[in-house]
Amino acid sequence: MIQHIWSIVCKESRVDETTNSISIIDAYENLQISLNTEPDYKEGSPVGVPLNFELVSLFYRDKKAGEESIEEFVRVIDPKGLELGGLSSKVVFKDSFDRMRNIFKFQSIALTTSGTYLFQLYSQKTKKGKKQLISVIPVSIRVTINSKIS
Questions:
Q1: Domain coverage including residue 29
Q2: Which residue in 13, 123, 132, 150 is deepest, having the highest Cβ count within 10 Å?
Q3: Domain containing 117 — which CATH number?
Q4: What is the pTM of this model?
Protein backbone atom coordinates (compact mmCIF):
# COMPACT_ATOMS: atom_id res chain seq x y z
CA MET A 1 0.00 0.00 0.00
CA ILE A 2 1.28 3.49 -0.90
CA GLN A 3 1.37 6.01 1.95
CA HIS A 4 2.07 9.73 2.04
CA ILE A 5 4.94 10.41 4.49
CA TRP A 6 5.56 14.17 4.32
CA SER A 7 5.26 17.28 2.15
CA ILE A 8 6.84 20.71 2.37
CA VAL A 9 6.68 24.03 0.49
CA CYS A 10 10.18 25.39 -0.11
CA LYS A 11 12.28 27.64 -2.32
CA GLU A 12 13.94 24.63 -3.95
CA SER A 13 15.15 21.09 -3.42
CA ARG A 14 18.36 19.45 -4.54
CA VAL A 15 18.90 15.72 -5.00
CA ASP A 16 22.48 14.46 -4.63
CA GLU A 17 23.25 12.22 -7.61
CA THR A 18 25.60 9.98 -5.62
CA THR A 19 23.51 9.31 -2.52
CA ASN A 20 20.03 10.21 -3.82
CA SER A 21 19.59 12.27 -0.63
CA ILE A 22 17.46 15.39 -0.88
CA SER A 23 18.26 18.82 0.53
CA ILE A 24 15.40 21.23 1.16
CA ILE A 25 16.38 24.88 0.68
CA ASP A 26 14.38 27.55 2.57
CA ALA A 27 11.19 25.90 3.81
CA TYR A 28 8.37 28.43 3.51
CA GLU A 29 6.15 29.13 6.49
CA ASN A 30 5.89 32.93 6.07
CA LEU A 31 6.42 35.15 3.02
CA GLN A 32 6.22 38.88 2.39
CA ILE A 33 5.44 39.94 -1.16
CA SER A 34 5.20 43.48 -2.52
CA LEU A 35 3.89 44.26 -5.98
CA ASN A 36 2.50 47.04 -8.11
CA THR A 37 -0.56 46.57 -10.29
CA GLU A 38 -2.42 48.48 -12.97
CA PRO A 39 -4.40 51.54 -11.81
CA ASP A 40 -7.72 49.73 -12.43
CA TYR A 41 -6.85 46.89 -10.01
CA LYS A 42 -9.83 45.88 -7.85
CA GLU A 43 -8.80 45.07 -4.26
CA GLY A 44 -9.17 41.36 -3.46
CA SER A 45 -8.91 40.23 -7.08
CA PRO A 46 -6.33 37.51 -7.79
CA VAL A 47 -2.97 38.85 -8.97
CA GLY A 48 -0.41 36.57 -10.61
CA VAL A 49 2.97 36.96 -8.91
CA PRO A 50 6.20 35.53 -10.33
CA LEU A 51 7.58 33.30 -7.58
CA ASN A 52 9.74 30.22 -8.05
CA PHE A 53 9.05 27.60 -5.38
CA GLU A 54 8.46 23.88 -4.98
CA LEU A 55 6.12 21.53 -3.17
CA VAL A 56 8.00 18.32 -2.36
CA SER A 57 6.32 15.10 -1.19
CA LEU A 58 7.65 11.72 -0.09
CA PHE A 59 5.63 8.53 -0.58
CA TYR A 60 6.39 5.05 0.76
CA ARG A 61 5.03 1.60 -0.05
CA ASP A 62 5.37 -1.42 2.18
CA LYS A 63 5.91 -4.01 -0.58
CA LYS A 64 8.16 -3.85 -3.64
CA ALA A 65 5.71 -5.69 -5.86
CA GLY A 66 6.06 -4.58 -9.46
CA GLU A 67 5.14 -1.18 -10.82
CA GLU A 68 2.51 0.78 -8.91
CA SER A 69 1.27 4.36 -9.18
CA ILE A 70 -0.99 6.99 -7.68
CA GLU A 71 -2.01 10.47 -8.78
CA GLU A 72 -1.13 13.42 -6.51
CA PHE A 73 -3.15 16.64 -6.69
CA VAL A 74 -2.45 20.03 -5.11
CA ARG A 75 -5.02 22.82 -4.68
CA VAL A 76 -4.09 26.34 -3.56
CA ILE A 77 -6.72 27.99 -1.35
CA ASP A 78 -6.58 31.68 -0.35
CA PRO A 79 -7.39 33.03 3.16
CA LYS A 80 -11.06 33.56 2.18
CA GLY A 81 -11.47 29.95 0.99
CA LEU A 82 -11.25 30.73 -2.75
CA GLU A 83 -9.50 28.06 -4.83
CA LEU A 84 -6.81 29.82 -6.85
CA GLY A 85 -5.55 26.89 -8.89
CA GLY A 86 -4.32 23.34 -8.87
CA LEU A 87 -2.01 20.79 -10.46
CA SER A 88 -1.69 17.04 -10.64
CA SER A 89 1.17 14.62 -11.16
CA LYS A 90 1.50 10.86 -11.43
CA VAL A 91 3.80 9.17 -8.90
CA VAL A 92 5.16 5.89 -10.32
CA PHE A 93 6.98 3.30 -8.21
CA LYS A 94 9.25 1.07 -10.31
CA ASP A 95 9.80 -2.61 -9.37
CA SER A 96 12.58 -2.23 -6.80
CA PHE A 97 11.59 1.12 -5.24
CA ASP A 98 9.80 1.51 -1.93
CA ARG A 99 10.11 5.33 -1.72
CA MET A 100 9.33 7.98 -4.30
CA ARG A 101 9.52 11.74 -4.19
CA ASN A 102 7.22 13.99 -6.15
CA ILE A 103 8.24 17.57 -6.82
CA PHE A 104 5.82 20.22 -8.08
CA LYS A 105 7.74 23.21 -9.46
CA PHE A 106 5.87 26.51 -9.49
CA GLN A 107 6.94 29.69 -11.31
CA SER A 108 4.10 31.88 -10.06
CA ILE A 109 1.27 32.07 -7.58
CA ALA A 110 -2.04 33.92 -7.58
CA LEU A 111 -2.57 36.10 -4.49
CA THR A 112 -5.69 37.92 -3.31
CA THR A 113 -5.06 39.19 0.22
CA SER A 114 -2.77 38.79 3.21
CA GLY A 115 -3.32 35.72 5.36
CA THR A 116 -2.82 31.97 5.42
CA TYR A 117 -2.80 30.20 2.07
CA LEU A 118 -3.43 26.46 2.14
CA PHE A 119 -1.77 23.92 -0.12
CA GLN A 120 -4.15 20.97 0.00
CA LEU A 121 -2.74 17.65 -1.19
CA TYR A 122 -4.88 14.78 -2.38
CA SER A 123 -4.07 11.32 -3.73
CA GLN A 124 -6.08 9.06 -5.98
CA LYS A 125 -5.22 5.40 -6.59
CA THR A 126 -7.25 4.89 -9.79
CA LYS A 127 -8.91 7.27 -12.23
CA LYS A 128 -12.33 6.23 -10.93
CA GLY A 129 -11.23 6.16 -7.28
CA LYS A 130 -12.06 8.81 -4.73
CA LYS A 131 -9.58 11.62 -4.09
CA GLN A 132 -8.33 11.44 -0.52
CA LEU A 133 -6.98 14.45 1.39
CA ILE A 134 -3.47 13.49 2.56
CA SER A 135 -2.01 16.77 3.83
CA VAL A 136 -2.61 20.51 4.22
CA ILE A 137 0.35 22.88 4.29
CA PRO A 138 -0.33 26.41 5.59
CA VAL A 139 1.85 29.29 4.38
CA SER A 140 1.25 32.77 5.80
CA ILE A 141 1.69 35.44 3.12
CA ARG A 142 1.71 39.17 3.76
CA VAL A 143 0.76 40.93 0.55
CA THR A 144 1.49 44.60 -0.14
CA ILE A 145 -0.19 45.85 -3.32
CA ASN A 146 0.58 49.35 -4.60
CA SER A 147 2.23 50.18 -1.22
CA LYS A 148 -0.92 49.16 0.70
CA ILE A 149 -1.09 46.02 2.85
CA SER A 150 -4.08 44.04 1.66
A1: 2-149
A2: 123
A3: 2.60.40.10
A4: 0.91
